Amino acid sequence: MSERIWTAALLVIGDEILSGRTQDRNVAQIGTWLNVQGIRLREVRIVADDQDAIVEAVNILRARNDYLFTTGGIGPTHDDITVDAIAAALGVSVVVHPEARAILEGYYAARGGINEARLRMARVPEGAELIPNRYSGAPGIRFGNIYIMAGVPHITAGMLSELTGTLEGGAPLLSRTIGCMVAESEIADLLGQMERTHEGCQIGSYPFFREGKVGANFVVRATDQARLDGCVDDLLAALRAANFDPVEGGI
Amino acid sequence: MSERIWTAALLVIGDEILSGRTQDRNVAQIGTWLNVQGIRLREVRIVADDQDAIVEAVNILRARNDYLFTTGGIGPTHDDITVDAIAAALGVSVVVHPEARAILEGYYAARGGINEARLRMARVPEGAELIPNRYSGAPGIRFGNIYIMAGVPHITAGMLSELTGTLEGGAPLLSRTIGCMVAESEIADLLGQMERTHEGCQIGSYPFFREGKVGANFVVRATDQARLDGCVDDLLAALRAANFDPVEGGI
């Protein structure tokens, strides 16, 4: 069970996320998508529209993960500096990608025509490839192990679906959830013991408080289905033995 | 206008955020709250329940920001390792805080009594103070410029409200929003020029697509009300002059 684990990092770029104006949706969206590709989202950073902050994060995260995704800052306005900052991090020039230019000219032909601001969205770090954008013309960008994506979640989703199945990964992380109307602090020992005795399984405990009652969902994760099922079976049996009435699938 | 800017970092701790199982709410909640305290959320990291990852992030973030907030990993179960990891980062021991112990004994008196797992939530880095938790007993923890908070958003909110007004900050960041049914790429030049000619103001452009039409909200931010209003007035005038029909307050 010493299989290689493939990891990714995500860099979310944008003042609007840090100020609280915009609720990020890309961490959960990309984390979920990566699991299906057999890749673990290991770390996320959120930085402002600030070149130094982007450069620092890009160079650390791309070096220590198999993949680095970024979201945000690739639009047409003055605060969209992601491409320039990543090119600076890589030590390469920014060039207009001819195919991106053609895509934008086509997209904007019926929308007022191309202009200087719109042409900004054809700029890429020299040597990059494009990631198609089925919704709004301006493509995403791939350079080596870096995937530069839009920040608007449904546009990001379209780009992710173009990439589905194209990234090398390992075994997808499987999970099963058990819910219980019990305070997690009542069965903390049991959970710890279950995790220790089931190699290759990890158990997360997520408490909730609803309609005046406390409960928790226990998420068991493993890459091996048989190990996962064995751990879930044992946990269900232990919870039933203690009359905690566990619910498969979670509450 | 060279006033001191107070900054904070946020470290979100939890496998469930990275896996996509749980949608984070604390970045936006804490970013918004910090603005009101006159403090900017400058950077966020999200890491797994992994001691090395927590230690690395804590030591970098606490050194280069006025404040470091953490959320998650302070519950009673085996995957709650935040206190131990932060104590390791600080090079101090973990001790049971007598006041936290008393709080938990009181809280659990009518809930099955204290046990070893529940007592885990009284453990703090040696020398720490407590942050009251009005909802579920187990307190948050302050050590120097580090604020260790719960991960469940409504419990975090209760802790934040205890801290309101207690942190030294600068002038709150003010903002006003203007919405327009225009593609941001049509007025990118105008926005860049407005920002350059209004010192102390920053303009963010946030496009949207609704009911078949494109539009954008422009958020002007400044710490000085007169400068903010001056920039907004000029931007409104320019948008009206171009017949773009701007909407104060945003769309």
Shape of chain A: elongated
Q: Judging by the overall fold, what is the CATH architecture of the largest domain in chain A? A: 3-Layer(aba) Sandwich
Which bin fits the share of residues in helices of chain A? 25-40%
Can you tell me the number of structural domains of chain A? 2
CATH superfamily of the largest domain in chain A: MoaB/Mog-like domain
The chain pair with the largest interface is: A-B, 69 and 69 residues
Quaternary organisation of the protein chains: homodimer
Description:
2 copies of one chain form a homodimer. By secondary structure, chain A is of the alpha/beta class. Chain A has 2 domains: 6-163, MoaB/Mog-like domain (Molybdenum Cofactor Biosythetic Enzyme, Chain A), CATH 3.40.980.10; 174-248, Alpha-Beta Plaits (2-Layer Sandwich). In chain A, 37% of the residues lie in helices and 27% in strands. Chain A has 9 helices and 12 strands. The first copy, chain A, has helices spanning 15-18, 26-37, 51-64, 82-90, 98-109, 116-119, 153-163, 188-197, 225-241; strands at residues 6-13, 39-47, 67-71, 94-96, 123-125, 129-131, 140-143, 146-149, 174-180, 202-210, 213-222, 247-248. A 6-stranded mixed β-sheet of chain A has the order 2-1-3-8-7-6, with helices on both faces. In chain A, strand 10 and strand 11 (213-222) form a beta hairpin. In chain A, helix 3 (51-64) crosses helix 4 (82-90) and helix 8 runs antiparallel to helix 9 (225-241). The radius of gyration of chain A is 22 Å and the shape is elongated. Chain A starts with 5 loop residues before the first strand and ends with a strand. The interface between A and B is large, with 69 and 69 residues. Strand 2 of chain A pairs antiparallel with strand 2 (39-47) of chain B.
